[in-house]
Design brief:
This protein has 202 residues and is mainly α. It is 72% helix and 0% strand. The chain has 10 helices and no strands.
């Protein structure tokens, strides 16, 4: 007769099974993290995936921290901040936003753009927002004040193609490189683009 397992044995078996499941589903790249950091990052990645957020940027952020030799607590904090930014971007851009849009939106938020700017972009442009958001972030990185960068992208996004927005960013960066104040460079280029798009007299 096969001996019956008592409740303590069953409980131990259940706990072992539950603990084994996340480990089996864990991204193998997280093995590069130290033993204390790995489960914390894995939990954040799993939570993001469950919430419908892209997990790959979180894994990449953790691996980036490892490559740079950052301590575990800083890696966990960076992954947690990125997960929060992705969530804020999804709230602003809507549940249908693609993973690249969410990544670009999170970067724009970290650059200082408000969620309201992301909402306005979504309303004004039916196409994907990955490039407009990336252009906004790049402009801020070039020294353009975030309000000026947001206003410029909002002014152009509704009627400009992705290639036009990229060329606009390059033109602003060239002007800045030649000594123009960043805000003025963006404003002049926006006005020029708007005048070209405006239909002339009959």
């Amino acid at each position: 007769m096969t001996p019956r397992l008592g409740l303590p044995a069953l409980a131990v078996g259940l706990v072992a099974t539950l603990l084994a499941r996340p480990a089996a589903a864990q991204d193998p790249r997280l093995e590069r993290l130290d033993a204390g950091t790995r489960p914390l990052v894995a939990a954040l990645v799993d939570s993001a995936r469950t919430a419908g957020l892209p997990a790959e940027p979180l894994v990449q952020r953790a691996l980036e921290g490892t490559i740079k030799g950052a301590p575990g607590d800083r890696i966990v904090a960076a992954v947690r901040r990125l997960a929060a930014d992705l969530g804020r971007a999804r709230d602003a851009l809507g549940p249908a936003a693609s993973p690249p849009e969410l990544e670009a939106g999170a970067a724009a938020l970290r650059a200082g753009a408000s969620p309201a700017v992301l909402v306005q972009l979504r309303r004004s442009r039916p196409q994907r927002l990955t490039v407009p958001l990336a252009v906004l972030t790049d402009l801020v990185a070039s020294g353009v004040p975030v309000d000026s960068a947001a206003a410029a992208v909002l002014a152009l996004a509704a009627t400009s193609r992705d290639a036009d927005l990229v060329e606009f960013r390059r033109a602003v960066e060239r002007d800045i490189g030649l000594g123009a104040p960043p805000a003025a460079a963006a404003s002049v280029r926006v006005n020029g683009a708007a005048s070209q798009a405006r239909p002339g007299p009959p």
